[in-house]
Amino acid sequence: SNREEAIKLGQSLMTELSLFEHVTRDHPFADDHLFYHFIDRGDVSINPVTKEKFQWSDYLDPSSSTSYSSGGMSLQPTLPVPNMEYVSPNDVHVASHIWPLDD
C-alpha cells in the first residue's frame, strides 16, 4: 500500500460510508493539513433487528458450519496480560485502565 491508496481509502470512507466529514464541509478527503470530525450516528452498537449489542458473529457468514454464538469457537483474541513491572511508570495508568480490552 502507499499514500495514494490510503487517500483513496479515506475518500471512500468519507463519501460512501459517511464516517467523517471536513469540519466546515468545504473539502473532500485529502492528504493535507485539514481538519475532519466523525459524524455522530447515535448508538450504532445496537442491532436494530435483535435490539441487542452487535457481536462479532453478526458479521460472519450465517452458513458457516461453526456456531460462534452457542459455545463454539471464540472470536475474541487471546492477548497476554501486560507485566506492569516492565511498563514505564508514566504509562501504568493507561495500561491498567485499558486492560482487559473487552471488559
Topology:
Elements: H1 3-15, E1 20-22, E2 36-38, H2 92-98
Antiparallel strand pairs: 1-2
Structural overview:
The protein is mainly alpha-helical and 103 residues long. Helix content is 19%, strand content 6%. It is built from two helices and two strands. A two-stranded antiparallel sheet has the order 1-2. The longest helix is centred in the N-terminal third of the chain and has 13 residues, at 3-15. The protein is extended, with a radius of gyration of 20 Å. Mean pLDDT is 75; it is low at 65-69.
Strand content: 5-15%
Give the number of DSSP strands. 2
Q: Describe the strand arrangement of the main beta sheet, using strand numbers.
A: 1-2
Taking Cα atoms only, what radius of gyration do you get, to the nearest Å? 20 Å
Task: Label the overall shape.
Answer: extended
Order of helices and strands: HEEH
Note the main sheet. 2 strands, antiparallel
Task: Give the class from helix and strand content and strand pairing.
Answer: mainly alpha
The helix fraction, in percent, is 10-25%
**Low-pLDDT sequence parts:** 65-69
Span of the ends, CA to CA: 34 Å
